[in-house]
Prior knowledge:
Strand content: under 5%
Family: Belongs to the sel-1 family.
Bound molecules: zinc ion
Helix content: 55-70%
Number of strands: 4
Organism: Thalassiosira oceanica
Low-confidence stretches: 1-15, 21-63
Mean pLDDT: 81
Protein name: RING-type domain-containing protein
Largest sheet: 2 strands, antiparallel
Amino acid sequence: MGCGPNITYIHIMTKAAAIWFYRQRCPYSQPQMKPRVRAREQHCDAQELFSMIPCRVLRRGLPEGPPQAAQEGLQATLEAELKDERLYSQGHERPEGDFCLICTLPIPLPMYEHSAFAVCCMKRICYGCAMAVGRRGMLNCPFCRTPHSDSKNEADALAMVQKRVEKKDSEAIFSLGNKYYHGGEPGLQKDIQKAVVLREEAAELGSLEALCNLGVAYYHGKGVDKDKAKGYSYSTVKVAMQGHVESRYNLGVIETEHGNHYRAVRHILISAKVGHKASLDTIKRAFMGGHAMKEQYAKTLKGYQDAVEEMKSHDRDEAKRRFAKIFGRN
Length: 330
Ligand SMILES: [Zn+2]
Ligand SMILES: [Zn+2]
């Protein structure tokens, strides 16, 4: 079937819609197909459609007025296409909070294994810089000058976090929420409901970690009523599109669960290229299983290696060696 019979259903379209429609419906836009004479006529009609702004589409003998369902279907498809375009084209750069405030380099992933928060002011620095600061004999927080010894006691550290919570620091609120979620800290009882309220508040104030966490919680029903649509929404529009790496990876996992391998690979390519090892491993498995192309894997591997290289520094390498020596890990 050519494009002729379909285009009669549409009266006025935007140029973008016409281009999409033409490419989707017209088999003669495929170079390998040779148009026959009658079909060529329809093909020309489609080209006319392609060039009109806005496009008044041909009507050929059919009753006036397009079928409502066809128009609504097309509208929905176009909206979904535009939504996807935004989803896949945004969030390729890591967010501001993923960079060390001293050396300004992106922090290796997962960040909790390579960086720490100064609880006095809730600022994140990489372990390389933390070690370098200590080596220079600085015993105070490099940002707010609070003595390190003050934050070593758990109760004092909790008091510092609570002080930041009063000042509406989103990371402090998220941190306190985590403490309530896991429990076990002196002077603080495990309270899941309170943890959720705090995470919601942190998310509203802009904490991407809190948003990601809530997305996972709603999707799996952890501590909240299970709501997959809400969980998915938290992990897409609000977080992955802002560059949050774990959320982008989570989207890939969700699409894989639904058997949407093409969509899954598109998400995970993005997270792998900023240095997320689990994503790289997933793309490798997808390639082995025939769900990703060799070129995609090769390009992703190169992107991943470049990102890892960019995150290296002398101080970070040294901190890594020291940790390996102390904790026996790489
Ligand atoms: Zn640093
Ligand atoms: Zn501080």
